[in-house]
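Hi W.,

Here's what went into the run:
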Amino acid sequence: MTRMALLLALLVAPGAALAHAATTGGLVSGLSHPVLGLDHVVAMVAVGLWGAILGRPALWMLPVAFPLVMATGGVLGILGVPLPGVETAIALSGMALGLLVAFMVRLPIALACGIVGVFALFHGYAHGTELPASANPLAFATGFVTSTGLLHLVGVGLGGLVRGRPVLRMLGAGIALTGGAFLAGLA
Amino acid sequence: MRRAAWLPLALAAAPAWAHDLPQTFGKGLAVLPGPLLLPLLSLGLMLAVSGRLRLLAGAVPAIPLGFVAAPWIGINADILALGAGLACAILATTGLPLAGTGHGALALGTALLAGAALTHGAGWLAMELSALLGLALAGTGAMALPPVLGLALLARWPVPARIGLRIGASWLAAIGALALSLTFAGPLP
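Here's what came out:
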């Protein structure tokens, strides 16, 4: 168990440093971009987990709303429209969504979509600013949208598989702590 | 008068693109550009989600019609096709109904613009007939893939498949919006 945890930490640690470095690739870089950035991963999985907690229609509406608004953020990034506090908002997204999962907060679907959408805008902006510099921007965009969507589905799947509220709460708390560590500059 | 001056300019742009165009059946079939796959896949998904598969029969001949109309649409056909595809993907995601013949008009328009964009606005005269056949076949295949897959999945797992198609449409809409802005910003040709 300890070995597994150590292996996971070793796999994830280099990603945190690389996540927002200049990107030069195509589809593979796009696919790996959200996965290698722990701040992105926890937020995406939290969206799926929260959707699973809220049930239908949030179960599919949150994973649908996120990429749509994320693309809007990406467009702003590509066009060079300034957006302040991007990294802070991304770290905050992990913490906030983690807390929503940990406390199993039930909100109206429109409000839940709104919260997820605000964070999606910042995640998309971070990806969008790196898009024009990549070797194959369209392949990179396809990769990161697909990867983001798959991470949501991982969250939804985890939410469906995990039996018992305490485990879900612990997962949420772990996500919130990770987001908090990024927010405090510890990660 | 000023409008008339644009026509030769749009037509003159064609020879500059001509050397990039596929000239054989195999190349026509294989070189369907990534940005133009998006509107065709989005169109197919919209028809699958809205359950209006019979509109596919009208959209298929609209692709070769786009080859003919390309010189009048010009080199901005790709931007227009991406925009129409984005509308299709958003409709597929939201499941919003369109009044009257809205879905049909959008399907025909998207297929026609994609057809024009496949020749880079140069039109059918700039390409060999075999290459045009290859392009038309590839475009039809891309357009028909989501409905064929969607029908098979919907028949077996109606609820999860419908959700899956809408999630897939949201991904296509996101990629389409990014492709459109990349085209405007410059990185995409």
